Amino acid sequence: MGTPASPIDLQTNHVQAGYFFAATGKPEPLVFKHGTHRYEIGGCTFSTNDGNGLKEMMLAGLGIGQHFRRIVQPHLDAGELVAALEDWSRPAMQFHVLYPPNRHQNARLKVFIDWVFL
Fold first, then answer.
1. pLDDT (tens place) for every residue of the chain, 118 residues total
2. DSSP 68-85
3. Could you give the domains of the chain?
């Protein structure tokens, strides 16, 4: 199907792989932003409620999807995935780590927080 030229091209001429929330079954749309333009694509052909599942669907060629750069970068570097619509970006998602306050922070927690927010 080639590389989509725009989000509209992606929606009309390509298969999409997406994510849905397990608790609600609500799909997370693919969101594209370019300057003041914002475009959302819902109703992906294939969807999963697991981040690894989404990555594996993309690697298997089941559709074009959006994932965290940190997760897919090794596959982009290896040529296993190809970036599409690079002029468009997904708006940043907020991410919070909540944990009980302690005098001594658990070393595993500190490593995880450092890894997530690098």
1. 789 999 999 999 999 999 999 999 999 999 999 999 999 998 899 999 999 999 999 999 999 999 998 899 999 999 999 999 999 998 887 888 888 877 677 888 889 888 887 7
2. -HHHHHHHHHTTSS----
3. 7-92 (3.40.190.10)
